[in-house]
Specification:
FAD/NAD(P)-binding domain; 2 domains; 10 helices
């Protein structure tokens, strides 16, 4: 069977499982699961997959669907990189996760990972760059340091006049977000996991959780529970996370590339990030003919993932066009072909959240991707699964709930 045929079969299996749940017909599987994972985004899907891989009976639940249009894991593309300055925990997680993304890409009918390489460039020597170079050297990771003449020779599509140097990671690139999550959930179902489309209500405030109740009135019992609900975590767990998770509004733009030219295609330009003193712009070459992607990494205003307006603003578009015209002059005046408004699900400092739910001995919470978490999905899933099963050899203090404050002060880029 071809990869594409297999992908269609798995997708059909997933669709049938979800549809059966929506109609209220019984889904196959045990009456009581080992673990129920709430939220079929990148963190929930990889957690469910890893638990199933270890032999657990797992139910994965999502209110809308895997990587749906409003999810932080939805949309076209996400960057995978291991450039993290002194934050070695994320450098290691990105490297560890890359192998899993390569595996998943091999299982899909279309690429999950486009290994375009990732280029981060700097106007001056920055501590972030210095520490990234040191980390890659100490860990034996591939990294090219390119001065301005080298950048001009290799990537003449970009205006480098104010750039001192760049750091190129050749093994990384773009993850096709929606495709990645939907492929993984299909693999999870094919491996014997169960998926349902259902909206759950808030769990009991204290004590052991025996079951979750859906808005349709069904009870879903399990031994353990994982809440990986992205920007919906504050609404589901308001007393615990209402002041510790900050969803922000983020605008993303895609521009047409010049007809008949492949200068801005994936074969000639890597994924890129302009560090810009920490006020980062980033984007991708034209992937799968969807257009040249560009976004500003600065946190936007607070955002409600259910009711927030998902049209880009005139101010945002004007700002992005000004940057595009300056840095990529051959794209000046090119048509805007697509936009997207998504959200970052930020913690106070940008660190991820993977910890036990206070007051419960059989539930954990996973989230706070903070705009950089997607790439770490496989490593997050393993860590969360270890925590669920009591197999975690060492706890990372930065992932704890106790380390999350109530005032935004971003430290991770």
């Amino acid at each position: 069977m071809s990869k594409l045929s297999r992908r269609k079969l798995l997708a059909a299996s997933l669709a049938l499982t979800a549809a059966g749940s929506v109609r209220g017909t019984p889904s196959p599987g045990p009456k009581r699961w080992d673990t129920i994972v709430v939220g079929a985004g990148v963190f929930g899907a990889w957690t469910a997959w890893d638990l199933r891989r270890r032999g657990q009976r797992v139910l994965l639940v999502d209110a809308v669907g895997p990587a749906h249009a409003r999810a932080s894991s939805g949309g076209e593309s996400r960057m995978t990189r291991s450039l993290y300055g002194a934050d070695l925990v994320y450098t290691r997680m990105a490297q560890e996760s890359l192998v899993d993304w390569q595996w998943l890409s091999g299982r899909a009918g279309l690429p999950v990972l486009h290994p375009t390489g990732v280029l981060m460039f700097f106007q001056r020597q920055e501590p972030f760059a210095t520490r990234s170079i040191e980390a890659h050297r100490d860990l034996g990771l591939a990294l090219e340091v390119l001065d301005r003449p080298a950048l001009q020779r290799r990537f003449p599509q970009v205006l480098w006049d104010d750039i001192e140097f760049g750091l190129l990671e050749p093994r990384f690139g773009a993850l096709m977000a929606r495709r990645a999550v939907q492929t993984l959930v299909a693999e999870f179902v094919a491996a014997g996991g169960e998926y349902r489309t259902a909206a759950v209500t808030a769990p009991p405030g204290k004590g052991r959780i025996e079951a979750l109740r859906t808005r349709a009135g069904d009870l879903l019992p399990a031994e353990t529970f994982v809440f990986a609900c992205g920007p919906w975590l504050p609404a589901l767990l308001p007393e615990i996370l209402g002041t510790r998770i900050f969803p922000t509004r983020q605008e993303v733009y895609f521009f047409a590339t010049p007809p008949g030219s492949d200068r801005f295609g994936a074969q000639n330009l890597p994924g890129w990030a302009d560090f810009n003193g920490g006020d980062i712009y980033y984007g991708f070459p034209d992937l799968e003919s969807r257009g040249f992607k560009i976004a500003h990494d600065r946190h936007g205003p607070r955002f409600d993932p259910d009711t927030g307006d998902r049209q880009v603003t005139a101010t945002g578009l004007a700002s992005i066009r000004a940057y595009l015209d300056r840095r990529f002059p051959a794209l000046a005046g090119q048509p805007l072909v697509e936009t997207r408004v998504c959200q970052y699900e930020n913690s106070s400092n940008g660190d991820l959240l993977i910890d036990r739910l206070p007051g419960s001995n059989n539930a954990i919470v996973v989230g706070a991707g903070s705009g950089h978490g997607f790439k770490h999905g496989p490593a997050v899933g393993r860590y969360a699964a270890d925590l669920v099963r009591g197999e975690l050899r060492g706890v990372e203090p930065r992932f704890s709930l106790a380390s999350k404050g109530s005032v935004q002060d971003r430290q991770v880029h």
